[in-house]
Amino acid sequence: MDAMAEAAVWFWLPAVLMPLGLWISLSSKEAMGRALGRCLVLLGFVGVVLTPWTVPSSPSSEAGHLLGFIVGPSALLLVGLYLIAFSGNVPVGRLPKSDRRLGVGATMIGVVWFTGMHWGDFTPTLNGEVNRYWLVFLPTFLLLMTCLCSGAALCLRVIGVQRSTESNMLWFVSGFVFLLLVLGMTIDGHAVDSASFRYHLWLAGSDLLGTAVGLSISILVFGLVIYWHERGLPEPQSVKPPTDEELNFVANIVAANLGGAEDE
Amino acid sequence: MSDGKLVVTWRAMLVAFLLPLVSLWALDLTLGGSVGAGTDSLPRFANALLTSYTLGSLLLLGNLFFYADSRQRPLAPLIGMLAAASIGLLTTVFLLNQGDLLMEDNGSVRAQVLYNLVHMFVSAGAILLALGLALGSTFATITAQKARRTILEEE
How many Cβ atoms sit within 10 Å of the Cβ of residue A255? Predict the structure, then answer.
């Protein structure tokens, strides 16, 4: 099997299985279909993570390598926030208070893990070089995170009523992520120096802007396609007005059901 | 909320969203500026735009199947979206064939197209994670506060 076919079988096929499985899982109305969808997602995920061993020669395997590296801290952060959120004041599905401490612990470990991947000894490296997709992932993630938290903080303050405390907490989160970015720009990491980080931060900004513009255009085109199709449809056929016989029939039914005790 | 205030609110939120980005830009320029990324930023921007447009169109093409369920399965919108996605793909290939205009560190057009796809998956992962964490943080800060009592005053 040549290199292209190997990459198609061991990387692209599992990569396609993930969105396909997700689609089947979300759109299926039967339990069997949903289970099949989840199995496909899991199978695809495992297949992509294993690419550094199955197709080590393919450059795309770096994405699988990165996925394997970031799945741990990402899961810790998401699960941690879930535990924190649902052990608070929620009207339904409230978790025990002890889960809050667990959530805070998981979130902190996730943050330390991620920072350790830049400044510590566990930067994703493949064949002695830093995984190039790590240099895409980290700046994009941090840049968008600080911007979103800043926007959400102001949103809470302006739109929400008496939400200053919550807004300040979000500004703290945004400031913390901003500080991580500034540290990345000024202090060399274990395997990535600050100049390289600054360079990739610019590229991440271009990437985010390009993605936003591209998606907006595709949504606009989608709207235009639907609009043109709907505009080209013929007028629906009008039904004939009811005859006197039909009107009398309806009037009799209405009259038979009117009445009852009158208010005094 | 009046319309005038609503406009100010949207502008303020946009400014708050962009504030960290502008601050980082200013800081980067102060630090000597990796302005060299400027020339590399353009191909990255264009590649991200074309890839996200093409993938977004394909995603919305899949979405049209659900739309078609309520419209006796018309073919015209499906063909329209397929054409839109094809235009994105053909434009990408055409521009990649124009020398070094959109080529990054890849040896061939096919390698660049595949790199764009994988790059987009990684970027999408980072975007989804950032969105999830920002939403989760917002929700967690709201639920962390004490329950409010609504006092209804009789008029």
Answer: 9
